[in-house]
Each structure stands twice: as structure tokens, then as C-alpha cells.
Specification:
The protein has about 475 residues and is mainly alpha-helical. It has helices at about 5-25, 60-80, 90-110, 120-135, 140-165, 180-200, 205-220, 230-235, 245-250, 265-285, 295-320, 320-340, 345-365, 380-405, 410-420, 420-440, 440-445, 455-475; strands at about 135, 480.
Length: about 475
């Protein structure tokens, strides 16, 4: 078997669909359709005194978790064949470079940021150059595909320069590397530090958890004035560069790396543990169906996984904290008794995944009172651990449907979105919206909420539906964007 999990693809695809949908719906829906700290309750202004999470607050951690789980799947087989760790470093650094380039390019070619009548045409051009820069055509050799990618990167850099020069009113500070898409920049950091964390602790989960413990200690003590803890936390390589060099490189002290970015290891590292379990499942090829749990057990487990995600969203958003804790314990015990004493490789996977998911959820529940309550921004310890647990429950949900019941068609499109996430991330903004705007439909779509507030969701569904269609089309033709 190849190390590809359809359930993990579906989890990643669900996160991407949620990102696009939540970013395109109108400001006319109930507050639980937006980030908890930025919604109708605060007049769509950031308010860190509002606690709780919504479904929108799950999409980024779900993607980070899937990214962490993919690391063992991508690298374990190569290492088992005898490839040395140091030989992987060039590919890791290349991946980081391409993600950083992607982050910078998104900022400087975004049609919502550009001015003038050509903004959507420039966005379509940018999408085409993204495509050439990152695509892997199965019919081309590695060498030819690489040359095509570098040609695309060259033209993409030229487009960025054209935008900056031709639109001085938009880019008032000129070109800056420190102007970028923060989500992709965080992913670049996680691609580096998450991969290194797994590589050097892949034989010891305790050592991996130790990384989290040390980082948590640094996070707690970073404000201690005059301490080495504060020095380490604030350390940034860019601060050692002269102002002349920083000006020449178009960077600020906070560009590319900040210790604060590493807080997302609290999601990525739990993801790598789940990835290890998936790798073990691939190698534990148990074909005896008689050992599988009954369909009734799996149906109840599937419903409980869904119930745990929904109940946590409702209770944490509405601040029913005691009720939430009691429901978590009750649901958790029910799942434990359903999955205990697993006899098949698939049921062993579910039981081990659930144990870790329940651990992270309970840990996050205990931390809920810390830092005032769970919150995405500024992210709290509770947020990292609760969302890691919910990501595992969602992964189990998808796996039961797709692996136990064998019904992959139900979430086929969702899984295919997860197979080409880079393209899906920008297809809505750089392809679907520009095309709708050029044909004159976008002004009408933007006003749909005026008919009835819930039609504000229709705008998001139209753009997200277009993104899904484009991404599925490329996946069916195996046109994957890779870093």
C-alpha cells in the first residue's frame, strides 16, 4: 500500500473548504459563522475579551494537524529504505523557500489589494504563473518539470515587480518580503520545525512531547524581565543584520521567523503522532474481516465522533463549560467501551487515535480556565489541545466512512480537495472571483444578502463551489501543485 490516507485527505480538504467558505460569506449571518473574536458581537472588529470558538476557528488547526500527520506518511518509507536524515535537508529547505515565495506572491498579486481596472486580469495572470511555478505534470520528466517551475517562478517575480512599480498608491512602502500571507508563512515555519521535530524524535514519542513541554515552559516565562528565557523568546536572526542590509533585503525584524510562530507545534506535533499511527496501520495489514467490530459499534462510534465535535463547539461558544466537561467524559467513556480490546488493525487504529484525541481534549478542557478561556486570537493553550482532539475525532469519522464502510464516494470531492491544497487555497481568490467579476456577476453576488441575510451564505457557496470544481478537475488529471 502507498502511504496515502483518504481520511487524512478528507480532513485536509474539509479545512480548505472551510477556509474558503468562511472567507467569502457576507457579514450578514449569525455570529457562529465567523471567528469568535471577530464577528457581529464585536462589530467585526477584533475583540480578545470574547471567548469560545466556532466552526471557523477549526479550519486552520485542522489543516495544521493534517500537515503534521502527513510528515510521517511522506518520510517514513524513505527512511526505512536507508536514506539518511541529512539527505532530506535540501528538499526540506526547498519546500520552505517555495512556501515563503508563495506567501510573498499572494500578498503582492491579490486582486482585493490591487487597484485599477486590470486587477482581476492581473490576478488571473498570477494564478497562471502560480500554476506553472508549482505544478507537477505526470507526463513530463523531473528535469523538464523542474525547468518549467523555475521559468514560472521567474515570471512570477517579474509580475510582483510590475505590480509594485505600477501601483505606488497600493504599495506605498514599495516591495517588502515582510509583506506576505501570514497563513502560508506559518505553514512554512511548521514545514521546517515540524519536520525536524519528527525526524529527530521519530523513535520516541516521549522526546517529541518533551519538545512541547520545553516550549510551553518558554512561553510561560518569556515575560520574565532580564531572564535568558526572554532573550531566547525574542531572539530573531534578522535583528543581527544592519539596517542597510535589512533595507536591501526588504525585511523587518519579525519577517520569516518568530518564536511565537512555533506555538502551532502544539497542533502539528500531535498531528505527527497521529501520522505515526497511520504508518503503523499501513504496515499492519490485517485482512481477517471476522476480527472487525460490528457495524452497529461503528455506527455508534461515528455518531459519537460527530457529537463530540458539535457539542464542544456549541458549549465552548455558549460558555457552558461544566456541561461541556460532563458531555466529553460521558461521550469519551462510551467510545472507550465500544472500541476497547481491538482485534483488527483498523479497530486498533481507531482505539489508539481515540486515546490520543481524548487525551488532548481533556488537556485542553483543563486549560480552558487558563488565559481567560479558549480563544483563537490570541491563541490559548486550551485552543491548541482542544482543536487537536477534535481533529482526531474528525479523522476517525472520515476513516470509519471511507475505510470501514468502504464508502469513499460520499466524501470523494472533499478528499480530492485535500490532495491539491495549494491550488485550492488560491483558486477562489485568483481564479473564480476574477472570472465572475470579469463577466459582471460579482457585483450581483455581493448584494445577495440584501434579499435575505442568509443569502450571504450563498455568496460563499458560489465561490467555494467554483474552487471545488477547479481543484477536482486538476486532481482528476493529476496536475498537483507541490513544494
Amino acid at each position: 500500500m502507498n502511504n496515502r490516507s483518504s481520511a487524512l485527505d478528507a480532513l485536509r480538504g474539509l479545512a480548505i473548504i472551510g477556509m474558503v467558505l468562511s472567507g467569502t460569506i457576507a457579514h450578514s449571518l449569525p455570529a457562529w459563522n465567523y471567528h469568535a473574536q471577530v464577528g457581529p458581537r464585536s462589530g467585526f472588529n477584533f475583540d480578545p475579551t470574547i471567548f469560545g470558538i466556532t466552526w471557523v476557528d477549526l479550519v486552520f488547526p485542522f489543516f495544521l494537524f493534517a500537515m503534521g500527520a502527513a510528515i510521517p506518511l511522506a518520510l517514513s518509507r524513505r527512511l526505512d529504505k536507508g536514506i539518511k536524515i541529512q539527505s532530506l535537508f535540501p528538499a526540506i529547505l526547498k519546500r520552505v523557500f517555495l512556501l515563503v515565495l508563495f506567501a510573498v506572491a499572494i500578498y503582492h498579486t491579490n486582486p482585493y489589494r490591487l487597484g485599477g481596472v486590470w486587477n482581476y486580469a492581473l490576478a488571473l495572470l498570477a494564478f497562471g504563473l502560480f500554476f506553472v511555478s508549482f505544478v507537477r505534470f505526470p507526463s513530463l520528466s523531473v528535469k523538464i518539470n523542474g525547468l518549467l517551475n523555475w521559468l514560472g517562478i521567474g515570471f512570477l517575480i517579474s509580475l510582483i515587480a510590475f505590480n509594485v512599480i505600477s501601483q505606488p498608491d497600493v504599495f506605498k512602502q514599495g516591495f517588502k518580503l515582510s509583506h506576505n500571507d501570514i497563513i502560508i508563512l506559518v505553514l512554512a515555519n511548521m514545514a521546517l520545525f515540524g519536520t525536524l521535530s519528527w525526524l529527530f524524535t521519530r523513535s520516541s514519542i516521549i522526546a517529541r512531547l518533551g519538545i512541547l513541554a520545553v516550549f510551553f515552559a518558554l512561553r510561560l516565562t518569556a515575560d520574565a524581565e532580564g531572564s535568558w528565557n526572554q532573550l531566547v523568546w525574542n531572539l530573531n536572526p534578522a535583528q543581527f543584520l544592519s539596517d542597510t542590509i535589512k533595507s536591501a533585503l526588504y525585511i523587518s525584524d519579525g519577517w520569516l521567523y518568530r518564536m511565537d510562530f512555533l506555538k502551532y507545534l502544539f497542533i502539528v506535533i500531535p498531528g505527527t503522532i497521529a501520522g505515526d499511527l497511520l504508518v503503523n496501520w499501513f504496515s499492519d495489514n490485517d485482512t481477517l474481516k471476522s476480527k472487525l467490530p460490528t457495524k452497529n459499534q461503528m455506527w455508534i462510534t461515528l455518531l459519537l465522533m460527530l457529537a463530540m465535535v458539535i457539542s464542544n463547539l456549541i458549549c465552548l461558544y455558549s460558555r457552558y463549560l461544566v456541561v461541556n466537561l460532563l458531555l466529553n467524559i460521558a461521550f469519551g467513556l462510551a467510545v472507550y467501551f465500544l472500541l476497547r480490546e481491538p482485534k483488527h488493525s483498523l479497530s486498533r487504529l481507531y482505539f489508539r487515535l481515540f486515546q490520543w484525541g481524548f487525551f488532548w481534549l481533556l488537556l485542553g478542557s483543563v486549560f480552558e480556565a487558563f488565559e481567560g478561556g479558549i480563544r483563537k486570537d490570541h491563541a490559548t493553550m486550551s485552543y491548541f489541545f482542544v482543536t487537536s482532539g477534535l481533529a482526531i475525532f474528525t479523522l476517525i469519522f472520515f476513516s470509519i466512512v471511507m475505510n470501514y464502510f468502504g464508502n469513499k464516494k460520499v466524501f470523494r470531492y472533499v478528499a480530492e480537495i485535500g490532495q491539491n491544497p495549494m491550488l485550492a487555497y488560491v483558486a477562489g481568490t485568483f481564479l473564480v472571483v476574477p472570472m465572475l467579476a470579469i463577466v459582471g456577476l460579482m457585483p450581483h453576488i455581493n448584494k445577495l444578502y440584501e434579499i435575505t441575510p442568509w443569502f450571504g451564505l450563498l455568496k460563499g457557496l458560489i465561490i467555494t463551489g467554483g474552487m471545488i470544481a477547479v481543484t477536482v478537475f486538476t486532481v482528476r488529471r493529476k496536475w498537483f501543485w507541490k513544494t
